[in-house]
Amino acid sequence: MCCSHAATDSKLPAAPIAEASYSHFFRRFHTPYAVLGHDLTLRQGVFALFFVFCLTPWASPPMALALGLLLAQTLGNPFSTHTRRLTQKLLQFSVIGLGFGMNAQAAVAAGKEGVLFTVASISGTLLLGYFIGKWLGLGRQVVHLISCGTAICGGSAIAAVGPVLRAKDEEMSVALGTVFVLNALALFAFPPIGHILAMTQNQFGLWCAIAIHDTSSVVGAAAAYGDQALQVATTVKLARALWIIPVSVGTALLFKQQGVKVKIPYFILGFVAAMLLNTFVPVAKPLGPVLVQLAKIGLTATLFFIGAGLSVKVVRSVGIRPYILGVLLWLVISTASLFVILHAA
Fold first, then answer.
1. Which of 137, 187, 283, 304 could cross-link with 68 by S-S, CB 3.0 to 4.6 Å?
2. What percentage of the chain carries pLDDT values higher than 90?
3. Domain tally for the chain?
């Protein structure tokens, strides 16, 4: 018995020692080292290496998002303030650049095909969100933010509608956190589903535009499926994003908010201008492939930044009920739109 106790006792310090070693290992990545007169940390170096890789031809949008998520869950994002500020601008410029690879006539045709889906899905999602949110006992403003993010274009819609609602920072964070996590799942899940169902490029692009929240993830998933899917998805999604304006105005009236400004997504006009230049100005056509390639690189970097911002703390801070609302809305809109698209004549 005594020997047994002694043997057991001798093993007890192993766990604390292992934890200490683990903690010491990660502490090294946060320790500043003098490099060429500047204090730099190893985690900054890792971030820089991942970022540079995302600029190479070997990196895909899903891979960039995965690298960002890996960094967020381990070392953390050492430049979170800067990447948060850059993400939206980089996405907007990337979307404009994609316009130089599109034909205006084809875009109009794609836009017409998606308009009925857009109207039905936006109104249906907002209405369904209201009832599910009421059932879950969530605050009215959080419900409306998540519903708008699901119905229109994710974080952009939430950022536009939030000030109209005069939403609190916590409410904005909850809505954005819910949408960004689901975006990450969609980016990985949609292309394999499309291949399993043998969806055409046109079908998949339309499904992405309707069923995935953020423009970044829509473009990323569609780009992984094919160039035609990318064109359809981008055009329909940006046409859908214009609904930010009437929905924001409707929000102000519904919630009886006065004296608020509606944010207009002006970058969509840049996308349209780029598309018109590529279609009708012959001099601009040789620049098209270069600008489109730069736009795709910019999109890949954007997804890396988004992934790097989704830490465990952000995910946990949302709570379970907003995720339930977001998941239920997402499942309904994705399955319903998939059924309609696959069975449309």
1. 304
2. 23
3. 1
